[in-house]
């Protein structure tokens, strides 16, 4: 009997020790291990500057441009694209109408082509852009590419407007309807081309916020 009482007392003591040193601790929740979040300013942003114009600014890539607010902007790494609306499909035969700004390291160069319709230089303030215009037709499709390049130190900015239109005759459309579609194609592309040139003229360098100069920091003891 005394042996049984002794065993029970020992078990109670063990239980009290376990409870005192570990049993009353609250287990950590997943939130306890979540690293603290830090906030930072966005490196790119789009703002509306007027009823018809918006501005795209990218501090990381170092530039800003103004473009028609009807253009749909999209960002992918170092390429910013602007999809241009062309209206109802039955009013034109434009398959593609898009502008892109690509930022790359190294010297600027245009793609190797055999035929260049036009070559010139565009001056905008202190900036000078090289430009080529490529136009050709393949199997009833008309291709137009206007390309501008701007070099800043070891960074190249390439701005391109690309369009693809299909001849109405490829769709079996003839006569006055075909003429109307062709005229619509021309009007839309010419208006977009002028808007694109204005976007290039609005190009400006952007300098992002600078971090603290660590060489000027005096160490402090805690």
Account of the 3D structure:
Helix content is 22%, strand content 38%. With 222 residues, the chain is of the alpha+beta class. β8 (127-138) and β9 form a beta hairpin. Mean pLDDT is 85; it is low at 24-32.
CATH architecture: 3-Layer(aba) Sandwich
- Helix/sheet category: alpha+beta
**N-to-C order of helices and strands:** HEEEEEEEEEEHE
Count every helix, treating DSSP H or I runs of 4 or more residues as helices. 2
Fraction of residues in H or I helices: 10-25%
Task: Annotate the secondary structure layout.
Layout (H helix, E strand, L loop, with lengths): L1 H22 L20 E5 L4 E6 L4 E6 L3 E5 L2 E5 L10 E12 L12 E7 L2 E12 L2 E12 L2 E12 L8 H27 L2 E2 L17
Antiparallel strand pairs: 1-2, 2-3, 3-11, 4-5, 5-6, 6-10, 7-8, 8-9, 9-10
What's a quick, concise take on this entry?
By secondary structure, this protein is α+β, with helices and mostly antiparallel strands. The protein has helices at residues 2-23, 175-201, and strands at residues 44-48, 53-58, 63-68, 72-76, 79-83, 94-105, 118-124, 127-138, 141-152, 155-166, 204-205.
């Amino acid at each position: 009997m005394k042996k049984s009482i002794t065993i029970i007392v020992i078990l109670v003591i063990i239980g009290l020790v376990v409870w005192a040193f570990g049993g009353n601790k609250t287990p950590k929740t997943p939130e306890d291990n979540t690293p603290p979040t830090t906030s930072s300013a966005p490196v790119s942003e789009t703002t509306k500057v007027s009823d018809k114009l918006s501005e795209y600014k990218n501090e990381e890539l170092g530039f800003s441009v103004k473009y028609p607010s009807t253009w749909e902007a999209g960002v992918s790494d170092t390429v910013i694209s602007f999809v241009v609306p062309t209206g109802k499909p039955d009013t034109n035969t434009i398959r593609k109408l898009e502008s892109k700004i690509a930022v790359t390291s190294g010297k600027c160069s245009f793609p190797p082509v055999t035929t260049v319709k036009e070559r010139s230089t565009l001056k905008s303030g202190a900036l000078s852009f090289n430009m080529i215009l490529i136009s050709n037709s393949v199997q009833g499709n008309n291709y137009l590419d206007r390309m501008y390049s701007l070099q800043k130190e070891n960074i190249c900015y390439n701005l391109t407007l690309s369009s693809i239109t299909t001849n109405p005759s490829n769709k079996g459309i003839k006569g006055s309807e075909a003429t109307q579609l062709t005229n619509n194609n021309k009007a839309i592309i010419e208006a977009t081309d002028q808007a694109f040139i204005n976007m290039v003229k609005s190009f400006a360098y952007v300098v992002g916020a600078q971090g603290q100069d660590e060489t000027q920091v005096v160490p402090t003891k805690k």
